Amino acid sequence: MTTETTTVEPAQLTREAAEAIREFNHRTLPRSGAPGLTYPGEAYDAIAALKVLAQRLPQAIEQIGTALDVLSALGHLGSADGQDPARHVAATQDFLITGMEQAQGLAQCLDLAHSAVSPLTYSGPENGPEEEPCGEGMCQCYCVGAGHPCGCDCPHDDDCDCDFCEARDQY
Asked: In angstroms, rounded to a whole number, what is the distance separating the alpha carbons of residues 28 and 135?
């Protein structure tokens, strides 16, 4: 059995992480008065995951700076504006260091938020939020911004032919 190894460029991994956060933001938008997260345990888990993400950012940022330093030391950098590439590397490093410090602060804040949310429990209906049966005219395309007013999760927006959904489906 032959296993093919696929190499993913590091920048692609960061794009995928950004896309995952975009998807999280989309899925947790409050719709029709319903919260984006149903239970406090979901908030607890999401904060924990964001905390870990923030904790890992400083290393990722530092490694970008290290790569630029190595490329500069090897003489493998040029500059499109005709300036000394070392000047741009130094400026980039300054901003990366600030970003690392801010990511560390973000991780600390998320750690505190994680602790603060931990005692919360759900006290709503036993079976979670009630869902009304889907009725004709009740469901809408997500592009309207309201999602499904009845609270159902039926995929009525799959067959929507509005410009927004057609453009979204091309990606």
From this structure: 24
Q: Which among 160, 52, 54, 45 is positioned nearest to 102, based on CA atoms?
A: 54
Amino acid making up residue 14: T
Rounded Cα distance between 153 and 131, Å, is: 9
Q: Up-side HSE of residue 74: CA atoms within 13 Å toward CB?
A: 8
Residue whose entry in the numeric block shows the structure tokens 């979901």: 42
Strand partners, 31: 34
DSSP state of 148: -
pLDDT in tens, 135-163: 444 444 444 444 444 444 455 445 555 55
Token match 């940022």: residue?
61
- Per-residue model confidence as pLDDT tens digits over 99-129: 999 999 999 999 999 999 999 999 988 766 5
